[in-house]
Structure prediction request, 120 residues.
Amino acid sequence: MATLGELERAMMDLLWESAEAASANELRELLARREETDSKGLAVTTVLTVLSRLEKKGLVERERDTRPHRYRAVTTRAEHTAELMHEALGTANDREAVLARFVGSVSETEAEMLRRLLGA
Prediction:
């Protein structure tokens, strides 16, 4: 799973939060409203380049039947995060140690949630 740069992550956040596909111009406007991203001078061509990279990474799909093209996330944020966690665990030499460290770092509420999920 490819890692995301700051602008890619900001764009994915917008797409994950939206129920609808969005055009590059719409995403540019939404990014400009976000405080964490300095995108006021962001060109639409830059947004299109980032969307193209995200499409190549398999994170977004482009609706080509409309003009301008519209983009949507391929997976949910939860699915993406789970895949990242699975990938990170897969690179560990000692999976048990990694899982023990992870479980030892979660809150009591999260630990109870894990117990419930494992029991299901």
Observations:
- Residues 6-73 form a domain with the Arc Repressor Mutant, subunit A fold (CATH 1.10.10.10).
- Helices lie at 6-17, 24-33, 44-56, 77-90, 95-105, 108-119.
- The chain has two domains: 6-73, 77-119.
